[in-house]
């Protein structure tokens, strides 16, 4: 295996590990806080998740701006050591306030991992972007599946806090592997290539705001359906917890299956049509899941939803990458803040819709938001055929 392939494999592994550790406990926070700190108030779980996501919203673009001046690998090393130290602090926490404080500092360090995705895009070049994006989504959803399955085991440990000591050790081991692997890895351009004409700051700002709003709405819609999914399927369809969990994971499985399609259809000239079509199917599948009383139709809706969710997100990310040639890391981290902003707002909208109407409402509202996002994207982003960053004829 060549040095480049080894480097790429390690970077992809870091993404998988980052997502896996992030989702492993997330469905079980109420049980975790009850078992470890004796907190039974579900409101504290909501507060903890809110603070965690707000931290990421703030921290990610800061790492992106810093990456303009330092090598990404060095920023990853800093983030890894911050994570290792804070994991030890979380394991030794005496009360929930200490645990929360160390969590915030951990997430500041972990936010440096958001630089890995654009780094992989940069290293592979324009011709391999769809392959990198497809691989990313395979690993992302694979980590969600594995994390969800292992989270139930973690929460059964006699002292779950001890797990964080183990994670700290793993973090140091991974850092050592990265130090050996990334010796020749360069990510910071010393000069701006003359073959590119960089768009004005005004156009760049407008691009980031408009695509950021689309990303925000897209992730708001697709995360609205998560908080009450189990309650909805158990209450309205009389499913068991296990059956509900399987139904919940269907979209992640379909996202993995979508990989060959993503590689085939997500060429630059097709992104506008692919995104519009996929988002339209998403909207229909979401409303179908909220309006049906048939378990079979619900299952079919989950299948289509997962498949086209991966395609729509991939097309949106590729459009962002294709128009961020000269500041890939900065643009992606800013876009990620809009994404995490959507993750922050989604549970609040879901809670409001459920309390005002019923458990199926988040699906219908999410479908409507997808349709509005589609219209907005067509008007503000995909209406201009000319790329924001154009190549000149100069060599």
In short, what is this structure?
It contains 16 helices and 2 strands. It has helices at 3-23, 29-37, 42-66, 72-91, 96-110, 116-124, 129-154, 162-181, 201-224, 229-237, 241-257, 259-265, 271-291, 295-322, 328-356, 361-380, and strands spanning 196-197, 390-391.
Compute the number of helices: 16
Choose one word for the global shape. globular
Query: How many strands, which pairing sense, and closed or not: the largest β-sheet?
Result: 2 strands, antiparallel
How many structural domains can be distinguished in the coordinates?
2
Any guess at the CATH architecture of the largest domain? Up-down Bundle
Backbone CA Rg? 21 Å
Unreliable stretches covering 5 or more consecutive residues? 190-199, 389-395
Strands of the widest sheet, in order across it, are 1-2
| CATH 4th-level superfamily of the largest domain | MFS general substrate transporter like domains
Count of extended strands = 2
Q: Can you give the mean pLDDT?
A: 88
Q: What fraction of the residues are assigned to beta strands by DSSP?
A: under 5%
H-E order: HHHHHHHHEHHHHHHHHE
Structural class: mainly alpha
Membrane topology: Multi-pass membrane protein
Protein name: MFS transporter
Subcellular location: Cell membrane
Pfam families: MFS_1
